[in-house]
Specification:
The chain has about 130 residues and is of the alpha+beta class. It has five helices and four strands. Strands 2-3-1-4 form a four-stranded antiparallel sheet. Strand 2 and strand 3 form a beta hairpin. About 10% of the residues are buried.
Length: about 130
């Protein structure tokens, strides 16, 4: 299966432990050049290693961001005992995190100086297959 084709789907990681999922949304500034630069800043070759390591160090198992036009949708998978508030508080103190947030803010529709937890809006699940 081609994992880079949005109509083929994206394989999910298997962790061997129960997990839970958080879903968030945010909008970028509606400027194609800025959106292209934002996407580049998050690709395999340009995303900051310290940021990826920091995300993992607070207990996040996987983080994915999806985009449609200037709308972002983030999925965060964690162990079931994960505490969002304490993890985000810790993440905000890690090396280069504030610098990263200031850098990506130029692409995002947000207030200057906002933390990641202030920028991304938590979404409510309104449907699942009820099994």
């Amino acid at each position: 299966m081609n994992t880079n084709n949005k109509t083929s789907g994206y394989r999910c990681k298997e962790y061997g432990i129960p997990v839970k999922r958080y879903c968030q949304t945010m909008d970028l500034k509606n400027d194609p050049e800025l959106i292209a630069k934002y996407k580049e800043a998050h690709d395999r070759y340009h995303s900051w290693p310290e940021i990826r390591e920091g995300i993992k160090s607070v207990g996040i198992l996987e983080m994915e961001i999806y985009i449609l036009d200037n709308h972002l949708f983030m999925i965060v998978e964690t162990p079931v005992d994960f505490d969002w508030d304490s993890a985000m508080a810790k993440l905000a103190t890690l090396p280069r995190q504030a610098e990263w947030e200031d850098y990506v803010a130029m692409f995002q529709q947000c207030k200057p100086g906002s933390t990641s937890d202030e920028k991304w809006q938590m979404m409510e699940r309104m449907f699942y297959l009820y099994e």
